[in-house]
Amino acid sequence: MDMAATNDIEKKRMHPHKFVLWIAMGSIVMMFAGLTSAYIVKRNDGNWLEFPMPSVFWYSTVTIIISSLTMYLAQKAFKAREMARYRSLISVTAFLGVLFAVLQFVGFIQLGHQNIPLFGVKSNPSASFLGIITGLHVLHVLGGVIALIVIFFRAHRTRVKSYNSVPVEIVGTYWHFVDILWIYLFIFFNMVGTG
Amino acid sequence: MSNEAVLHAHEVSHDVHHGGHDGHHHHENFITKYVFSQDHKMIAKQFLITGMVWAVLGGLMSVLFRLQLGYPEASFPWLEDILGKWAKGGHISAEAYYALVTTHGTVLVFFVLTAGLSGTFSNFLIPLQVGARDMASPLMNMLSYWFFFLASIVMLSSMFVETGPFSGGWTAYPPLSALGDASPGSKTGMDLWLIAMALFVVSQLLAGLNYIATILNMRTKGMSMTRLPLTIWALFFTAVLGVLSFPVLFSGFILLIFDRNFGTSFYLSDIFISSVGALPNEGGSAILYQHLFWFLGHPEVYIILLPAMGMVSEILSTNSRKPIFGYMAMIGSLFAIAILAFLVWAHHMFVTGLNPFLGSIFVLLTLLIAVPSAIKVFNWLTTLWRGNIRFTPGMLFAIGFVSLFISGGLTGIWLGNSALDIHLHDTYFVIAHFHIVMGVASMFGMFAGIYHWYPKMYGRFMNNTLGYIHFWVTIAGAYLIFWPMHYEGLAGMPRRYYDYSVWESFKQFVELNRFISTVVIIVFAVQLLFLANFFYSIWKGRKVTTQNPWESTTLEWTTPIRPGHGNWPGEIPEVHRWAYDYGKDGKSFIPQTTPVGDDESEHH
Questions:
Q1: What's the CA gap between A81 and B215, in Å, rounded?
Q2: Which of A19, A27, A164 is nearest residue B14 as measured by Cβ atoms?
Q3: ipTM of this complex prediction, to 2 decimal places
Q4: If residue B273 lies in a helix (H) or strand (E), which one and from where to where?
Q5: How many A/B residue pairs have CB atoms within 8 Å?
Q6: How many Å apart are CA A81 and CA B262, to the nearest integer?
Q7: How far apart are CA A5 and CA A125, in angstroms?
Q8: Does residue A162 surpass a pLDDT of 90?
Q9: Which residues of B, range 6-45, sit inside 8 Å of A by Cβ?
Q10: Is B9 in Cβ contact with A3 (below 8 Å)?
């Protein structure tokens, strides 16, 4: 079979796995769209506690934006075959992802200190929504961290060398996606939640 | 061929020790072939047979609660033998009745008509009809089945817990679903219901992603989107609906889980339970759940119906020996239905105190669905018109689908009007409407698909005589069961009541209810006949001797009679024309793989 020729044709078509990722991201968007519209509906119902976002969310926002930058550089390093650089950038990205999750959790604790419980019988739906939406987003970030760890170890394999950039590109796209998703949520909470 | 190159180029680059990877030499043992199979055809059969198990269980539940409705005075000692404390003295208890109604709904809507129908035929037909070796991700495909299997196990186990399965209706509205103290079924039964449904959503998402990616990305050479059979278009829109609406249901479930277990108040406010007292929850709204639920719930109706529509289009055209009438209009109407599916959810909520102005917008959007639906019906009838019809069992069920879709669709126009719905809401009129148009019609689509593609699945035919008996009893039974329910509903008979004989206004229906219940038992027995036919024919059915027994144009009939993993032994055939060249230029049919000749009249 004339592999080279068919590959040339196929270059124009998106890799099926990448395509699956795009649809999956659409699906995730629908989940958060459902939650944020429920948030708006509930807010207009009354009995809604208004409170400012925890200040630490600003730091977590900066963290996740930086992590997108390191992810981008990691992809560039991979394509340039600079594997050592790629591995360290991947590690930094994963670390920043974990740091982001920790900072979000610190934000929850901050709210607790202000006597705004997220869950439990004394909680107001506005705080519970914040907890659930942010918590689900953190789970998606941690899913990305696991994917980063997988491609990190793949880059360490000696028996099999892979220069296929598809897995790295998939993880990269997903990573930028959860970043943008958080920026949307952050703006949403600041505009709709407290305004 | 093209998609093969994509996948294999990828594999080769992964594994430097495995240079020449040509062809498909899988070493299969029992486990990888029949259990953890990644072959889409085997996964389709797994979905089908699991769906059948659920259909029998769900159908049996309806037989049991119809016994109660038809014979509220009678006592059946054997019921106590099988149901134990749920049927003391041979009477189904009220709790058991509500549990049966709830589980019947959940099982039939999700486990049979979503997983069993679209799971089976999306898996089976998509790779075969678009010309692909397998799905975009066979592993995800396998996982999708096993998540469904896990969901099935959890749902099944909920029937055996001491407090019984969930009994607050298949829609699981709070507060009944959110408060364990609200009813016996709201305790462990509801926990298991939620876990099962969460697993089910995961299964549907994995499946839907795969279907969409396969259809858009893995079509064989020459298979442009407008050459696809309508089955694939319908399964495509089904998957899109699922992928976009199931996450919203999932978010509704997450909020419900927090209300149940973590003391939040999304759906709960100002509630007093007689055994517990006043609850501290404040500020929640049960209507919020209804919005989230029906945002899935309405598309779900089309998730169930569209696969049946697609298969019926294909089967009607093949067995009328005529091209489908209005191919592009069929795609356009599928698209319109898919869009409108997301814009009509509030018509389930006309009596929740919805703003009447908002209600009138939802009335308009709901009635708009009549337009694409009518286009489809018109095209099916014109496809049949003056066709050279072959009345195979599959064809009969396809025609039966059209009949049921018309009968059930017309009452949809009634219910879509909020002014009428205020009277008809939660009556037997609604039961009759959605059972005919969504339940039985989709079952007919499924039966049509099974009879029609059985030769491809098992290399044998099902018995025709049994198929005809199955069809005629089922269609007569479907109308005899659900037609009278319209009258009961118009008279105001509410759904979900345990015993109507104690109500002065509904005593007139005692005999009618008994009649319906009797027909239910007969129809259920005939479904067992169908199952016997199905399983007997797997081993003993008449063997298929030609590659293309229905003289059909589509790609699945160019594979060997019993295709292996990879579907085509050689290269995947190239496609040169659309899927509906029947009765063209004096030829009975021209397969999609035949190149267009010079002397041919205009082609698609």
A1: 34
A2: A164
A3: 0.89
A4: strand B272-273
A5: 142
A6: 49
A7: 59
A8: no
A9: 6-7, 9-10, 13-17, 22
A10: yes
Q: How do the domains of chain A map onto residue ranges? A: 17-193
With tokens 């760890």, the residue in question is A149
The CA dihedral of B65, B71, B74, B80, to the nearest 10 degrees, is -10
Residue A5: the pLDDT is 41
The answer to whether the Cβ–Cβ distance between B209 and A24 falls below 8 Å is yes
Q: Which of B6, B17, B204 to mutate to test the interface with A (most CBs of A within 10 A)?
A: B6
Percent of chain A topping pLDDT 70 = 89
Closest residue by Cα to residue B450 from B462, B440, B437, B459: B462
Instruction: Tell me the C-alpha distance between B233 and B229, whole Å.
Output: 7
CB distance B283–A121 less than 8 Å? no
Residues of chain B with pLDDT under 70: 1-27, 602-604
Q: How far is CA B526 from CA B120, B402, B506, B532, in A?
A: 22, 21, 30, 10
Which chain B residues are closer than 8 Å to A132 by Cβ?
A: 254-255, 258
Cβ–Cβ of B262/A125 closer than 8 Å? no
CATH of domain A17-193: 1.20.120.80
Q: Measure the CA–CA gap between A78 and A75, rounded to whole angstroms.
A: 5
Are residues A60 and A100 in contact, defined by beta-carbon separation less than 8 angstroms? Answer: yes
Nearest to B327 by CA among B396, B376, B394, B386: B376
- Tell whether the model's pLDDT for residue A47 goes beyond 50: yes
Q: Which of B216, B244, B266 sits opposite A30 (nearest CB)?
A: B244
Residue B595 CB contacts under 8 Å (≥ 6 apart), including other chains: B576
Looking at chain B, which residue has its C-alpha nearest residue A120? Answer: B263
Query: Considering only CA atoms, which of B152, B182, B158, B54 is closest in space to residue B112?
Result: B54
Q: Give the ranges where B107-229 is alpha helix by DSSP (H).
A: 120-130, 138-157, 188-217
Q: Which of B9, B248, B291 sits opposite A41 (nearest CB)?
A: B291
pLDDT in tens, B488-523: 999 999 999 999 988 999 999 999 999 999 999 999
List Cα–Cα distances, B98 to B71, B253, B314, B407, in angstroms.
Answer: 16, 21, 39, 28
Residues of A in contact with B243 (CB under 8 A): 23, 26-27, 30
Distance in angstroms (rounded) separating the CA atoms of residues B5 and B13: 12
> Nearest Cβ partner of A41 from B216, B258, B288?
B288
Give the minimum alpha-carbon distance from B478 to chain A in angstroms, rounded to a whole number.
Answer: 37
CB pair distance less than 8 Å for B13 and A163: yes
pLDDT in tens, A117-153: 989 888 888 999 999 999 999 999 999 999 999 988 8
What's the CA angle centered on B306, arms B303 and B312, to 5 degrees?
150
3-state secondary structure of B584: strand
pLDDT at B27: 65
Contact B295, A154 (CB under 8 A): no
CA distances from A158 to A168, B13, B388 (A): 18, 14, 65
- In this predicted structure, the answer to whether residue A193 has a pLDDT above a threshold of 80 is no
Q: Which residue's entry shows tokens 């594999």? A: B11
C-alpha A130: how far from its chain's center?
Answer: 16
Q: Which residue of chain B comes nearest to A127, CA vs CA? A: B264
Of B14, B210, B244, which is closest to A20 when you measure between CB atoms? B210
* Mean pLDDT calculated for residue range A96-111: 95
- Give the containing element (helix H, strand E) for B185: none
Residue-range domains of chain B with CATH: 2-12+38-270+280-316+334-589 (1.20.210.10)
Tell me if residue B573 falls in helix, strand or coil: coil
Please answer whether residues B576 and B595 qualify as being in contact, where contact means their C-beta atoms are separated by less than 8 angstroms.
yes
Nearest CA of chain B to the CA of A161: how many Å?
7
**With 0-12 CB in 10 A as exposed, 13-18 as middle and 19+ as buried, what is B343?**
middle
